[in-house]
Amino acid sequence: MHECPTCLLTSEASQDVFRFFWPDQEVRAALSADGPCSFCRDVARYLDPARLLAERDAFFERARRPVFLAYSGGKDSTAALHHLRRDLGVEVVAVLFDNGFIPDVVLEYARSVCDRLDAELVIDREPVGRERLQRGFARRLQVAFRGPRNDVCTVCSKTFLRRFHRMMVERGADSIALGNNFWSHSPHTSGHADPPHMTATWDRVLPGGEVLHNINLPFASRITLARTRAILDEIGFHDAKFTGYTSNCVLSDFQDHVRARDGQRTDWGREYLSLEVSAGYVTRAEALSMLDASRAGPDEALMARIEAALRSARPI
Ligand SMILES: [Zn+2]
């Protein structure tokens, strides 16, 4: 077995993460005994920090105000919110989609952070409150959990994005900041080499013809986990500490739990962290210690509660 000395990939990894993020491409990292994997070598070749900062500055120069932030209440989007307000001085509307599985402590925290950073917070719920979950969202989640890949986060993000985009159009906004730590284009993952370097922005055309401009802000600004932690310390972020890597929604932990129980995607955490290492967000040592911390296993009582809530189609 070969292990990349730069990221955490091994020659035995299923590389499901790459198929998940780039489903239309045949993205596979090659591992060898001598040096970094092909993925890490490509990132070293295509990542140009100065170019990313220039791309970011141009993005905010032309963005209509306010800029909308897809705000999960978790670590990365909280750091992005802080960066937008304190470093870039951008007027922000933060939208948090309450799918019924966001604990109250996260919602309360989101309110206090937005208050302190002087950002407008919209907590988006189904139109007639959480009860609507009984008919719509939870049913779709039940279907997702029965599916072969348990892609519950995909169901949620599709629902959220549709509502989020509609809200932006109604407000006359055209620019979205995301807390993503990855690139949007790179020649080695996009299947084409134009531009021949990594980028952090992309456009989405809505069915009505409106164009929404997106930026993966932490990636563009080269915000690392260490910087994120410093920001979170400064604003007194209290991590709700669910059992996996997320700090906002209990569903993603439940998803991991179900996958592990069903023998699916057990490499997911390691592969996902490998991407974050190669993107420069976490160091290899940090990623390894996060993997160790996650071995404690899930909170069984919480997992049982989520399962019961999903089965009866109600919020947790
Ligand atoms: Zn690698």
Keywords:
globular; binds zinc ion; six-stranded mixed β-sheet; Rossmann fold; 316 residues; alpha/beta; 47% helix
Could you characterize what this model shows?
The chain is α/β, with parallel strands linked by helices and 316 residues long. The chain has 14 helices and six strands. Strands 3-2-1-4-6-5 form a six-stranded mixed β-sheet, sandwiched between helices. Helix 5 links the parallel strand 2 and strand 3. The structure holds zinc ion.
Work out the oligomeric state of the chains in this entry. single chain
Please bin the fraction of helical residues.
40-55%
| Parts with pLDDT < 50 across at least 5 consecutive residues | none
Largest beta-sheet details: 6 strands, mixed
**Based on helices, strands and strand pairing, what is the structural class?**
alpha/beta
Rg: 19 Å
By CATH reckoning, the class of one domain would read Alpha Beta
Give the CATH architecture of one domain: 3-Layer(aba) Sandwich
Q: DSSP helix count?
A: 14
Small molecules (ligands, ions, cofactors) in the structure:
zinc ion
Arrangement of strands in the largest sheet: 3-2-1-4-6-5
Principal-axis shape? globular
Q: What is the CA–CA distance across the termini?
A: 43 Å
Mean pLDDT: 87
Helix and strand sequence: HHHEHEHEHHEHEEHHHHHH
| CATH topology heading of one domain | Rossmann fold
